[in-house]
Structures are given as structure tokens and as C-alpha cells.
Amino acid sequence: MRRLLQLYVGLYLYGLGGALQVSSHLGAMPWDVLHQGLSRQTGLSIGTWSITVGALLILLWIPLRQRPGLGTLSNVVIVGVSVDLSLAWLPQPDSLGWRCLLLALGILTTAVATGCYIGAGLGPGPRDGLMTGLAARGLSVRRARTGIEVAVVIVGFLLGGTVGVGTLLFALTIGPLAQVFLPLFGIAEPAARPAED
């Protein structure tokens, strides 16, 4: 039960973190730049595009021989729903100070969320699975991750997504921050009980 609760809290927080960053208007996280650009071109919500892109990415897992877990499938739906729910109630401030606060809270919330949902050990997100699948085919994790995120930022920007200082700050800080939170939320497998005489 703890793993499931941690997974779903983490996925909700991940969507909230993305929404905080979008609301700051200082630059969305890389994948949300793409979702926002698609939203502006089609009129569908950012969350709807998050779900759609996530589902399409899982299809790309098939040739990469990646297997989705409960966390993978939950990620596709819950993060998208959370983004839309959060954007509905978050403020859209004009003050630069408030926008910077939203940006900082968004990055921190996403880092905590990453520790929660990965620490639950119930399957990677669709974007993470694409990265590890490409890495298993010979690319380094660093090159796979960088290549994917640069590509989605460029496409998202061309479609009208917001790229800014927040996008750069997220890229530079999310790794180190996630490294802090992952050990805090990692759930160890229970040790096997010794056989009784």
C-alpha cells in the first residue's frame, strides 16, 4: 500500500510541478514545452497532450523491448490529469517576484515527485523508458536523454511553447535535486525470512 500511495502522490506532484512552471511564464520543463506548443496549435489542453504523447511513447517501447509497469501506465494518465487540474486553480501572476517563486516551487516539487514515483519501484515513466531503451541499444544515457530533450524543446518552441530561463534552470537542476530525493523515498525490498528449523 505504501508503494502505491507513494507512486500516486508522486505522479500528482509531478503534474503540479509542471503546472507551477507553466504558470510562471518563465519557461516550461522540456516535455511541457512540447505539450504547450501542441496545445496552442490544437486547442486541446496541455494535460491532454501529455497523456497522448505518453501513450505514443509507450508504443515506441515495443521495438525497444521495454516493458511497462503499473507506474508507467499510471504515469501517462495521472500526470496529464494533474497538470490540467493544477492549472485550473493556480494563479497567473504578473509580478516577476511571484513568477520566480512559482518557477522555484515547480522545480522543487518535480524533484520531490521524481523521488516519490521512481522510489516506489513500480515502473518508469514513458519518457524515462524511451531513454533507457535507447541506452540499451548502444547510446549512452546522457546522450539519449540530452538528444530527446533538446529535440522536444526545439519542436515545442517552433509550435509556440514557452522556452525561457525556467527551461534552462530545470535542465541544470533537476538531476542534482532528484539525486537528493531518490534515497529519501526509495523503498527497499523486504528481506527474505530465514527458514525455520
Q: Which sheet architecture does the biggest sheet show? A: none
Shape descriptor reads: globular
Helix count, per DSSP? Answer: 8
What average pLDDT do the residues reach?
86
The secondary-structure element order is HHHHHHHH
Number of strands: 0
Helix content class = over 70%
How would you sum up this structure, described in words?
This protein is mostly helical. The protein has one domain (2-185). Helix content is 76%, strand content 0%. Helix 3 packs antiparallel against helix 4 (70-89) and helix 3 runs parallel beside helix 6 (126-136). It is globular, with a radius of gyration of 17 Å. The two termini are 31 Å apart.
